[in-house]
Amino acid sequence: xxxxxxxxxxxxxxxxxxxxxxxxxxxxxGYRTYAAGDVERLREVLGYRRLGFGLREIAxxxxxxxxxxxxxxxxxxxxxxxxxxxxxxRLPFPDGAFDAAMAVSTVHHRPDPVAGxxxxxxxxxxxxxxxYDACDPGRRERFRLTRDxxxxxxxxxxxxxxxxxxxxxxxxxxxxxxxxxxxxDGFFEAHRRQPExxxxxxxxxxxxxxxxxxxxxxxxxxxxxRDDLASGRWTERNRGLLALDAAxxxxxxxxx
Length: 256
Known about the structure:
Blueprint: H1 2-5, H2 11-17, E1 25-26, E2 32-33, H3 36-50, H4 55-62, H5 67-74, E3 98-104, H6 113-123, E4 124-132, H7 139-142, H8 144-148, H9 163-170, E5 173-180, H10 201-205, H11 208-213, H12 215-231, H13 233-237, H14 239-242, E6 246-255
Parallel strand pairs: 3-4
Antiparallel strand pairs: 1-2, 4-6, 5-6
Helix pairs in contact: 3-4, 6-9
């Protein structure tokens, strides 16, 4: 766990001792067991450390639900557009207040995605949403990272609304988004033809999927992928994928 988080072996026991990051359980042998929520809290703590906060300050920050938004707003550069903290399900704006609203890879973080999209449509005359079709039966087969190394991903989508419900929420249409072989973005599926990118911690930290599946699943996936890339097995199993200039992996653009 310490190696995965990039901290010394003394850091985790210290955080446990002072109550900053405590494991959810311990094994019979006394080893700490960290759940996905514990890992997310640790990463939040480390993020505040990088910003220069002391441990006592961090202890207050991580237990305040309003803190994340406040810290992010404080980091915005001078002259940036006005930022408003609000619930996605209850936006504090009148109907049609904006020319356009956009959500990029964020809808799945909302407690009620459909309600959030309806609010977007209410306050904006045009809406664009980048998301994925969780009901696409071939998505897992086509995206080999989840099929071969991260099967836990399927469990993250069990309560995700159908694409038709998301589309109806904004009164629009859904269009497939093909991923080019040289995609330079950082979303989960972007590196489908450069799988070595998933071995980099900075790449994985930019995608919430890795935190949500937990450290054990992440460690196993990274180890398996690294071994298969080194042996040539990944290339052998994915020749068809490598031949595609663009791949359809279930990503969708909702437009209204």
